Amino acid sequence: MKRWMLSIVVTLMALAPVAAEASRDKSSLTGTILASAQSTSPVDYTSSDNAWNLLRAARRYATNGQLTQAAEALVQAEQRTRLLSNSATLEQLLGKIAAEYAKLGQYDRAIAITTSMGYTTLPPQACCVPLRTEAEIAIAEAYVKAGQINQAQQFAERIQSTASRYQVFVPIVVALAEQGRFADAIALSKRINDATQVSRARYGIAKGYISADRVLEGVEFIKSVVDPTERVSLLTLLSQWASRSGQYDRAYRIANQIQDAGTKGQVLTEVAIAYANAGQRGRASTILSQAYEIARKQPPPQAVAQWVGNFAQIGAFDRALEIAARLKDYES
Q1: What is the pLDDT of residue 299?
Q2: pTM for this predicted structure
Q3: Which residues make Cβ contacts (< 8 Å) with residue 295, sequence separation at least 6?
Q4: In terms of C-beta density within 10 A (0-12 exposed, 13-18 middle, 19 or more buried), how is residue 263 classed?
Q5: What whole-number distance in Å separates Cα of residue 237 and Cα of residue 278?
């Protein structure tokens, strides 16, 4: 018998008891999942393959409410992960395992895993956020999802890396705002000394004010934002929300507080269209005329034909024709 045929026969004989055992356990979800996670083939899985399979098994167990089995699969996944020599794969798996432990409510184990990781390893084919930071964010989010916001903040306070701590603060700020705890959310956001992260936190606070229908308070909060670009972005968000929720007068007042002329013109146009859709064409025409006058003063010269279309869209055809009469050449 040729050597390759002998190899196949031996392999099939070795797998026969496994196949029989799997058949007997077919009715058991637990048996099926673990068999899938730990099975071998003629070419043995590496520790990495086994770890990923066990991690997926843990997620399936958790989805099916089998939390004990999920935890057992994570223990085995971690054991296999610790055998890896490639630091990037090792920390990628450890971060995922820590996140799954946190989702199961096993926060101490999740935190213990992250403390064994460094802050220098980045995800494969990704930028900027270390794997440990990703895991720490996942732990904080698990606390928040479980309604344990104070515990999430206590965890964040103990994070060694300042940059990581700032990023973990963000979902906590958002959760505080969603609960209407705006004073706490704002106080925590002021402790974030990173422009990108504090901007994300303030965006979450603004959305919290919107969700709570406390838009005027949201406007007052935005006035305290020093960066003019961020202030414009947040005011635009509030105005658009007010328009979409039928609060057209409020949307108009907020739009008028936008300092950037170009953005102000765009937002006023949106408000005008909202008024028109609500049947208030006269009011819509007045506001769109204001937006048009703002646009005319902005460099470079605006495409006038676009404004003909805007006025036609709200049903102000006389005004559209009046502007169209001024057009020449291509625009005409």
Answers
A1: 76
A2: 0.75
A3: 262, 265, 302, 307
A4: middle
A5: 20
